[in-house]
Amino acid sequence: MALMRLDKFLADLGVASRKELRDIIRVGRVSVDGTVIKKPEQKVDPETQSLTLDGESLTYRRHHYYLLDKPLGIVTATEDREQKTVLDLLPPQLRRMGLFPVGRLDKDTSGLLVLTDDGDFAHRVISPKFCVEKRYYARVDGEVDAEDAEAFAAGLTLRDGTVCLPARLEKIGPGECLVTVTEGKYHQVRRMLAARGKPVQELRRLSIGALCLDENSEPGSLRELGEDDLCKMFRTGNGEN
Ligand code: URA
């Protein structure tokens, strides 16, 4: 890996802003290979050198991944002139890291949303080519039935003629169902259920691949994803494993 400035490396980790880091470094809180470094411009190689802040090891990660339980009423975008975006929900140090949402949840949809700075990863999650399953809980007007499930499985045609890939529809209770899709067309789940005469009243994304929201997850909660979580996203299993 190319050498990089110490303050830039620490800023990329989300430790603090570049300005704050200059002071943090100048007062001697950062060591490289056991030696205190007080120059923010010092070049370091985070892959081969060991860095500490206040004695704690700093692990270099090329990319960052976070799971946000998106609340209702927030737009899935990196900026918006009028409305609050998912990035506005992050603590200040994470807002500087160039994170963006992987795919989109409507303003009126809550649930699992991944934020990352890794474009290739995002593409693999979103593209239907990779068949990554996204599962939603939906509360609808009316009751879904076996015919609806068959229509979903066959590949539904929406009211505007758009053809959807085969999807799964499971009834789980009165007016409640689970929908599993491998693509993310505009308002897709809402439009699929509307096409069957079952308008959606509530929609929440529960899982991507085998990565699922905790049962007691609170909208607005955020956690960093580790390697295991990322691998889970490319496994099937509806979050049950
Ligand atoms: N399908 C929808 O209709 N809305 C979402 O937010 C996600 C999937």
Write structural notes for this entry.
Helices cover 21% and strands 27% of the residues. With 241 residues, it is an alpha+beta fold. The strands form three sheets. Strands 7, 8, 9, 10, 11, 12, 13, 14 and 15 form a nine-stranded mixed β-sheet that branches. A four-stranded antiparallel β-sheet has the order 3-2-5-6, with no helix packed on it. β8 (100-101) and β9 form a beta hairpin. α1 packs across α2. The model has no long low-confidence stretch (mean pLDDT 93). Uracil binds next to α6.
Short description:
This protein has 241 residues and is of the alpha+beta class.
Report Rg.
22 Å
The general outline is: elongated
Please give the share of residues in helix.
Answer: 10-25%
Beta strands, count: 15
The H/E string reads EHHEEEEEEHEEHEHEEHEEEH
Main sheet specs: 9 strands, mixed
Structural class designation: alpha+beta
Outline the low-pLDDT stretches. Answer: none
Bound molecules: uracil
CATH class of the largest domain: Alpha Beta
CATH topology of the largest domain: Pseudouridine synthase
Distance between the termini: 36 Å
How many separate structural domains?
Answer: 2
| Average residue-wise pLDDT | 93
CATH superfamily of the largest domain: Pseudouridine synthase
Output the number of helix runs: 7
CATH architecture of the largest domain: 2-Layer Sandwich
